[in-house]
Structure formats: C-alpha cells, structure tokens
Amino acid sequence: MSEEKDLTSSGLSRRGFLKGIGVSTAAAGVITAVKPIAEAAANDNGVVGPGNVAVTLKVNGQTKKLNVEPRVTLLDALRNRLDVTGPKKVCDRATCGACTVLLDGKAIYSCTMLAVEAEGHEVTTIEGIGSPGKLSAVQKAFMDHDAQQCGFCTPGFVTAATAFVREHPNATVEQVRAGLGGNLCRCGTYAGMLLAVSDAAKKGAA
Ligand code: FES
Ligand code: FES
Questions:
Q1: Cα of 25 to ligand 1 centre, how many Å?
Q2: Of 3, 73, 123, 142, which residue has the fewest beta carbons closer than 10 angstroms?
Q3: Could you state, in chain order, the average pLDDT of each consecutive group of 10 residues for the chain (206 residues)?
Q4: CA dihedral sign, ordered 80, 85, 91, 96
Q5: Cα separation of 14 and 187, whole Å?
Q6: Is this model's pTM higher than 0.85 or not?
Q7: What DSSP line would sit under 137-191, residue for residue?
C-alpha cells in the first residue's frame, strides 16, 4: 500500500487536516466571512477596498478593531498590526505551516487567509494556547521530549498539534505523522515532535 493511500485511508492527510489551505476552502471562507464587510463597506458596485476597511477580529479571546486594506492577510494583520508574533512568516504561500493558527478550533495557514475573511471567527494563536507559566499539554510534551532545536517552526507545530490531538485522541505515531504533514521543520526535529504529539494524544490532552 502506498504512503499516499495510507494517508488517505486514515482520513488524516495533510490536505484534510490543515483545513483552510487550497482554493476551495479559501473560497468558502470568503463567502462566509467577507459578506458582512461587503454589506457594510462596499461601494455602489459592490466592491470592497482598495482602501482600508474596518475589521473586528477576535484573537485569543480579545476583540481587536483595526483598519486594513482588504488585501492584508490574517498573518500580516496579526504580526504587523496587533503585535501577535507567535505565528511566523516563512514561505507566505501555504507550504511550511509556520503561520498556523486555529480558526474556530481548526488549524489553518494564516498566510493564505485575508484578515477580512477572519471577521466573525475565533482566532487562536500559540499565545492563546498556553503561557510560560501555564503550558498546555502539547506544549509540555514538546518540552518533555526536547522536540525543538531553533524553535522557529515550533509555534506552528504546537498549534497544529493542538488541533490534531483535540480531534484525534489516541492517535498512533503514523496518524500523527500524517496529521502534521502540513508543517515543515528545517532543523529536522521530527522524531521528537512525533513522540511529543503521540504522548499528548495518548493522554487525550491538548
Ligand atoms: S508562512 Fe504560511 S504556510 Fe508558510
Ligand atoms: S526547530 Fe528549527 S525549524 Fe524546526
């Protein structure tokens, strides 16, 4: 059986797990999230922008109001406008997973969602998952298994792993490997991360 078939049959493929990537899901996001803004800010031709539009985001439980051009990604809004720098900008094209955040609990690439699309949704970043004084179970498992080297990819991995463990308690190592396939680590710390996420999944704690 090929690896691709394995991933597909497990239902935990990279594409399936990281919802929000790819044209079809992004388009769905536009339909559900941009509509209220379009109603409020569109001109007579139904066009939003190109100037700033008012956007209200809910980030880590806090309501944030900002004015951004409709072309600004959720990642750039978080990092450059709201000073939420846990999500990292690396590839900026839905490949590496460094920018992973949770949107209503689902892991997405924030570099491929517009800030205006995120209005009306709950955005959770690594800052909202745990804190140095109160680590989440997945964060603690990463510490226990020494699952990072430079640490640059770690916020994205921990965020994706948090969604994964919540959705797939008791996942096997192979399922964890497939489920986190949408995140890349240049340091190659995969062995430790697989153990960490498997451990958290075994305990059923995210
Ligand atoms: S920066 Fe978003 S996937 Fe790489
Ligand atoms: S720990 Fe360095 S990129 Fe992953």
A1: 16
A2: 3
A3: 40 44 32 41 73 95 96 98 98 97 97 96 97 95 96 97 94 93 96 95 82
A4: negative
A5: 20
A6: no
A7: HHHHHHHHTT--SS-SSHHHHHHHHHHHHHH-TT--HHHHHHHTTT---TT--HH
* CB-based contacts of 142, cutoff 8 Å, min separation 6: 148, 154, 157, 158, 192, 193, 196
CB 150 less than 6 A from any atom of ligand 2: yes
**pLDDT at residue 41 in the model:** 57
> At which residue do the structure tokens 């924030």 appear?
110
Q: How many CA atoms lie within 13 A of 92 on its CB side?
A: 5
Q: How far is the CA of 56 from the centre of ligand 1 (A)?
A: 23
At CA 165, angle to CA 163 and CA 168, rounded to 5?
Answer: 105
Check: CB of residue 18 under 8 Å from CB of residue 160. Answer: yes
Atom of ligand 2 nearest to the CA of 148: 1
Rounded to whole angstroms, what are the CA distances from 166 to 42, 52, 64, 75, 191?
Answer: 38, 37, 26, 23, 21
Which pLDDT does position 149 carry in this prediction?
95
Q: Which residues contact 71 (CB under 8 A, 6 or more apart)?
A: 49, 50, 114
Calculate how far, in angstroms, residue 97's C-alpha sits from the geometric centre of ligand 1.
5
* Beta pairing, strands 106-109 & 100-103: antiparallel
Amino acid code (one letter) for 137:
A
